[in-house]
Specification:
With 97 residues, this protein is mainly alpha-helical. It is built from four helices and no strands.
Length: 97
């Protein structure tokens, strides 16, 4: 995570989207920079929300997304290969006519 672009809005967005560990890191960075009590409160709230079970579920959507991306890539690659085979078949067919 790049500390130069962390903002309160980004931290809130992470929290809203369920990326609690990223939100926690963002709030921690903001607290270190500013010392604002509101960030300390946000850190405590997030620490209470994050349990060992929830940590696994926070990263689960990313793993599922990667799996879906790989499936889509495989389908796309198969379509590219099939398109090439169709083009080759059309060339052979055109030569025979």
């Amino acid at each position: 995570m790049n500390n130069k672009i962390i903002t309160e809005e980004l931290a809130k967005l992470y929290e809203k989207q369920g990326y609690l560990e990223d939100a926690l890191q963002s709030y921690s960075s903001l607290y270190k920079k500013t010392g604002k009590k509101e960030f300390a409160k946000a850190i405590e709230n997030l620490k209470n929300k994050i349990t060992p079970t929830e940590k696994k579920s926070v990263t689960a959507p990313v793993k599922n997304y990667k799996g879906e991306a790989l499936k889509l890539f495989e389908k796309w690659l198969n379509m590219v290969i099939l398109e090439k085979e169709v083009q080759d078949f059309k060339k052979i067919q055109a030569k025979q006519e």
